[in-house]
């Protein structure tokens, strides 16, 4: 059986298609007798307006596209929940796409967003390279950077101050008495979670006269999370290390497993601090001290800011930074050696 269309409703109610549209979207603007006729026709035909068709008419589909580099990463769970809750509150639906940090896949999703006429794009975590920026600008769709930013381009964003957060984590270790400190971080080509957190690590060492620790860094390439190899390299570089800062909780968890397998006690012999405060961090053994990102709020705030741009054309704060916090648990302790 053929589904009724807006034309069928207009014909039955003996009004124009535009009048039916106004009844569905702004009923107060239609005189009572015509409004009642349209509502009666909708009920009789059991008409359900097609979201895409409404989008073509009103240039708004109430849909947001989300690109995420690795949906398996637990860090994104709370961000997505924040996006979902804010979208529901503001009347949007989400289309979530996993890019695997593959350029062709990303561009394919962006073109799909264009074809679906999404109202805005939530671009999560990855840097914005020049060709990515050009593609985003070609689409002429509002973009919000989530847990990432661009200092090169005037793109709105919401995240924490990663450099300051890393600085605070290392400063906490130093204040706890540690003087042999190492780091497992992401490759410095990662300008979001790699370079910024490295700079925070180095700044904390420099300001506390611990320049001898600056070489105690091992990098994980391509987000492979090959933590055991990285941990082995770091222990070889600095066998007397007493505290290790990792650039993510997943790296910290891999490090805890490596140390446990080798009979190295945490925190009695080595303190470990992570970054993100994902849910698993408080059920590890030992429970993980970490930098807490307000992940849920990052996600919800990103949608709120994007909605403001969609509705008003701009947002008053281009690059918005939310507060982070050091959550102290059982994987760190004071060092008196």
Automatic annotation (TrEMBL):
| Source organism, top-level taxon | Bacteria
Instruction: Provide the HTH lacI-type domain boundaries.
Output: 4-58
Regions that span the bilayer: none
Keyword DNA-binding among record annotations: yes
Q: Which keywords annotate this record? A: DNA-binding, Transcription, Transcription regulation
Q: Which SUPFAM superfamilies does the record match to this protein?
A: lambda repressor-like DNA-binding domains (SSF47413), Periplasmic binding protein-like I (SSF53822)
Q: Which GO terms describe its molecular function?
A: DNA binding
CDD domains referenced in this protein's UniProt entry, alphabetically: HTH_LacI (cd01392), PBP1_CcpA-like (cd19975)
The parts of the chain that form a coiled coil are: none
Q: Does the keyword Transcription apply?
A: yes
Pfam families in the cross-refs: LacI (PF00356), Peripla_BP_1 (PF00532)
What is the protein name for this chain? LacI family DNA-binding transcriptional regulator
């Amino acid at each position: 059986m053929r589904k009724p269309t807006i034309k069928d409703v207009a014909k039955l109610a003996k009004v124009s298609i535009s009048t039916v549209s106004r009844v569905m979207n702004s009923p107060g603007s239609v005189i009572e007798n015509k409004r009642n006729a349209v509502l009666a026709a909708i009920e009789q035909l059991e008409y359900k307006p097609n979201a895409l068709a409404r989008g073509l008419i009103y240039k708004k589909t109430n849909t947001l596209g989300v690109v995420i580099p690795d949906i398996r990463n637990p860090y994104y769970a709370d961000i997505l929940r924040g996006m979902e809750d804010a979208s529901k509150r503001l009347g949007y639906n989400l289309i979530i796409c996993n890019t695997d940090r593959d350029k062709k896949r990303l561009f394919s999703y962006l073109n799909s967003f264009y074809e679906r006429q999404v109202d805005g794009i939530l671009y999560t975590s990855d840097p914005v390279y020049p060709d990515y920026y050009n593609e985003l600008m070609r689409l002429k769709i509002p973009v919000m950077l989530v847990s990432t930013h661009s200092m090169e381009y005037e793109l709105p964003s919401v995240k924490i101050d990663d450099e300051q957060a890393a600085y605070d984590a290392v400063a906490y270790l130093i204040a706890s008495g540690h003087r042999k400190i190492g780091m497992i971080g992401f490759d410095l080509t990662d300008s979001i979670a790699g370079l910024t957190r490295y700079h925070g690590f180095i700044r904390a060492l420099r300001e506390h006269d611990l320049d001898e620790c600056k070489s105690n860094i091992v990098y994980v390439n391509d987000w492979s999370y090959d933590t055991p190899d990285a941990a082995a390299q770091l222990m070889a570089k600095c066998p007397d290390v007493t505290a290790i800062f990792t650039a993510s909780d997943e790296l910290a968890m891999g490090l805890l497993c490596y140390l446990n397998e080798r009979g190295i006690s945490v925190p009695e012999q080595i303190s470990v601090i992570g970054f993100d405060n994902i849910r698993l961090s408080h059920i590890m053994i030992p429970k993980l001290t970490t930098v807490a990102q307000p992940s849920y709020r990052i996600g919800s705030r990103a949608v709120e800011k994007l909605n403001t741009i969609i509705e008003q054309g701009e947002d008053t704060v281009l690059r918005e930074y939310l507060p982070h916090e050091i959550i102290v648990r059982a994987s760190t302790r004071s060092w008196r050696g």
